[in-house]
Amino acid sequence: LAKTTQPISMDSYEGQEVNITCSHNNIATNDYITWYQQFPSQGPRFIIQGYKTKVTNEVASLFIPADRKSSTLSLPRVSLSDTAVYYCLVGDLVGRDDKIIFGKGTRLHILP
Amino acid sequence: GAVVSQHPSRVICKSGTSVKIECRSLDFQATTMFWYRQFPKKSLMLMATSNEGSKATYEQGVEKDKFLINHASLTLSTLTVTSAHPEDSSFYICSALPFLAGGGNEQFFGPGTRLTVL
Q: Which residues of chain B are within 8 Å of residue A37 when distances are taken between CB atoms?
């Protein structure tokens, strides 16, 4: 199982772009990279998933370099409501790995 | 999008009693569901993997006789905390992996159940 390393916490201001980088040096060929957001006393919410290069949806972008040993979640123009814990997960639920282990996540605090 | 529900959302019980938590996939079928436990300010800890029609696979250190898991159908998994004690108080979260995962290598999470054992 690929282990992930993220910054423990980050602070930013409303309206700024926030980039959270995750290291996953032993990512396997079949592994996907998935980011989740969690608010207190709620289940994690899917943000974005990718395999390589760049993925963009209505809430975020995910940048994955060619070696796939890291990934960066980019949140454009954050607001106070983006204050949450963000988890980077790496794994292959469909293939050989049938579970994914959560790392410690990044506690993002948005300031007014 | 895919929705996973949990019931109850919160429960308070006396020490020694058993508590059942239900996890349902509302608009998709899930052959695999996962149960997590989360303590305050901590990350989610995987407890077990629940597969429809077969025995659950427990993570190391998780007592299978204490945390009974039943995945009776493609839309329902239950976690029963038997003889609950105050140290079992935690936030329990389930997730479901759609049957037709295809390109969606993605778990859908329930809202969680807050268990408080007095």
A: none
